[in-house]
Write a structure and sequence with these properties.
about 25% helix, GH, hydrolase, Cyc-maltodext_N, about 25% strand, Immunoglobulin-like, 3 domains, single chain, alpha/beta, hydrolase activity, 6-stranded antiparallel sheet, 8-stranded parallel sheet, globular, TIM Barrel
């Protein structure tokens, strides 16, 4: 019998595709990387990534866990696996099996016991904002890595990474606690493994600030990685301090792994030609707004290298929300600050907020929306206005009050100028459901340094700090403000993100110590420390009611009070000493005969006429 042999080229053409198809599935990623039993929401959707993983079947046998559905999408390198983790499920390692024909790939997936109970962040706290790369370098060994897209580190170049890390922060927790800080907020620590970005005609900038995510499930190893972040969380909680994480839902870097291989065509908001966001949030709440303006505002990109995420895609929405839950539980978070809040899909944000708060009712969520008026800002937070869309966000950064304090200290007193701006802004608090939860600030990593804005005037500095630490809300202090760091964003933001002196090898000065600070810097530091620690110990000041009186002739007075204590804050914003006639403050001062100056510990025995030196704020604890 004659044998018929296939020529080699026919064998390859006919059988090789079948051999390739039959190869065992190769899994590169499963995210979230682990999960927990005991969650109030039993649903979990796994993103599974690997070459042609979409052709696989999936099976699972684990007590209390049910495989509900396997979702295939346009890109064959993805599967989305829906699981039901019932109350009967126990901690352990379950095995998901991915099969192509007779070839199988088992994947071990860990389930842990949910245990985290956030402390939450409240008006009793003082938040301290740090840009980790610019605060302190605790280990030079992780400054740079040759296998990362940006292998550079140079503390003398304002546009590159400087080497600050999480260990550097841990090394200075004594400093923060002594200052009166109770909660730590860092700009994002999630991996930014990206190429240098062109941000000017003659400069390239690194993602040292952290807002250009490239891998959601990795803390950047230049900061110390997941382990260092967990150690920081533990160290903070051992001190009774709290951890705030910075979220970015709006965009990622164009070097993010899932931008380079997109799961679906609508994973990102795309345009026929590049379209930048307008930044005009009015189109969200304007009853006369054109739909085209709304689309540009929400779906336009921040920059050409920050792809805008389409949170209306259900798989992406689940991915972002589950990452927030994962981070909260794994790193024991107490609060989230949400970057670029107003650019997100609002329905998505409400769903995300509610999912987090259902699991963690004490968690504080506060957004960043640069909106000039209280009415406009209130759209993006729980409010008392009749907007068609109702936000469920508990808190937001108080941009109108920030503007009022900084602008007011630059201006002479008038009907709508000077300290009148502070009074008028607070007078509009009725638009917010809970103005006590708003996060207040004098400067941050995106703004000109506070001291420079007010003309390097130490008296004005103390007035603004006094308002920050004694009015309603949750105060936030930007790193270095307490030691009079200053500068304008000229030519770039890097000028207001300079290194904290003493945090880096070779620094000639160490501002973490009193001996390393100048007399003036110590005066500022001691002022902040005394008032911050008094505030923390005085419920009337941080959580009591606020009653303010209309400013007159540059004098602004308000009271914080509860059933146990009344604190008077009197401010003279003029250039001359004035005697404050307290007769019109009877509603707040009736029955009190003297007071203790909180900042000097002196007793004021006559409350009828209080002498206020020029450009001075006095804080008095009233006594009978």
């Amino acid at each position: 019998m004659k044998k018929h042999l296939f020529p080699p080229f026919i064998f390859l053409a006919v059988f090789l595709p079948q051999l390739v198809f039959a190869q065992a599935p190769a899994i590169q990623r499963v995210e979230p990387t682990n999960w927990w039993v005991g969650m109030k929401n039993p649903n979990l959707q796994l993103l599974v990534y690997g070459k042609n993983i979409g052709s696989s079947t999936v099976s699972l046998t684990y007590p209390g866990v049910r495989l509900k559905k396997v979702n295939k999408v346009e890109n064959p390198n993805y599967l989305f696996v829906d699981l039901d983790i019932t109350p009967a499920a126990k901690p352990g390692t379950m095995v998901l099996t991915f099969a192509n024909g007779n070839n199988r790939t088992p994947y071990r997936y860990e389930l842990r016991r949910k245990s985290h109970q956030p402390l939450g962040v409240t008006p009793a706290d003082l938040i301290y904002l740090i840009m980790p790369d610019r605060f302190a370098n605790g280990s030079e060994a992780n400054d740079k890595f040759a296998d990362m897209l940006d292998p550079n580190a140079d503390a003398n170049n304002p546009y590159l990474r400087h080497g600050g890390d999480i260990q550097g922060i841990i090394n200075h927790l004594d400093y923060l606690q002594d200052l009166g800080v109770t909660a730590l907020w860092m700009t994002p620590v999630i991996q930014n493994d990206e190429l240098l970005k062109k941000e000017g005609p003659d400069r390239m900038q690194a993602g040292y600030h952290g807002y250009h995510f490239t891998d959601h499930y990795k803390i950047d190893r230049r900061f110390g990685g997941n382990e260092a972040y967990s150690q920081l969380s533990k160290a903070l909680h051992q001190r009774g301090m709290k951890l705030v994480q910075d979220a970015v839902y709006n965009h990622v870097s164009d070097d993010h792994w899932f931008y380079k291989d997109q799961p679906t065509k609508d994973w990102f908001n795309t345009w026929s030609s590049y379209t930048n966001t307008s930044h005009k949030e009015q189109s969200l709440y304007d009853p006369h707004a054109a739909p085209a303006d709304l689309k540009v505002m929400l779906d336009g990109w921040f920059t050409p290298f920050l792809p805008d995420l389409n949170q209306r895609n259900p798989y992406l929405a689940n991915y972002l929300i589950q990452h927030a839950i994962w981070s909260t539980e794994l790193f024991n978070l107490d609060a989230w600050r949400i970057d670029t809040y107003k650019y997100n899909d609002m329905a998505f944000m409400n769903r995300c907020n509610q999912t987090l708060l259902t699991e963690y009712p004490k968690l504080l969520l506060f957004g960043e929306s640069l909106v000039s008026t209280p009415a406009g800002l209130s759209y993006f937070v729980k409010n008392n206005l009749n907007y068609p869309f109702k936000s469920n966000l508990p808190s937001t950064l108080d941009f109108p009050l920030f503007n009022a304090i900084n602008g007011g200290l630059q201006q002479n007193f008038g009907w709508d100028t000077g300290v009148s701006r502070v009074h008028q802004t607070l007078a509009q608090d009725a638009v917010y459901a809970d103005p006590m939860k708003l996060v207040t600030y004098l400067d941050n990593h995106d703004e000109n340094r506070y001291l420079s804005v007010i003309g390097d005037d130490l008296d004005k500095y103390k007035m603004g700090v006094t308002w920050l630490l004694t009015t309603r809300g949750i105060p936030s202090l930007y790193y270095g403000t307490e030691i009079l760091m200053k500068n304008f964003k000229d030519p770039t933001d890097a000028e207001v993100r300079r290194n904290f002196p003493g945090g880096f090898p070779g620094d000639r000065e160490n501002k973490f110590t009193a001996a390393g600070r100048s007399r003036r810097e110590n005066e500022a530091f001691d002022f902040v420390r005394k008032l911050a620690n008094y505030r923390r110990a005085t419920p009337a000041l941080h959580s009591g009611k606020l009653m303010q009186y209309i400013p007159q002739d540059g004098l602004y007075t308000y009271f914080r009070y509860d059933n146990n204590k009344t604190v008077m804050v009197a401010t003279n914003t003029t250039d001359k000493e004035i005697g404050l006639d307290t007769g019109r403050f009877t509603d707040s001062m009736k029955g009190f005969t003297k007071g203790r100056n909180v900042l000097t510990d002196e007793t004021v025995s006559d409350l009828k006429l209080i002498k206020l030196p020029a450009k001075t704020a006095v804080v008095l604890e009233l006594m009978k």
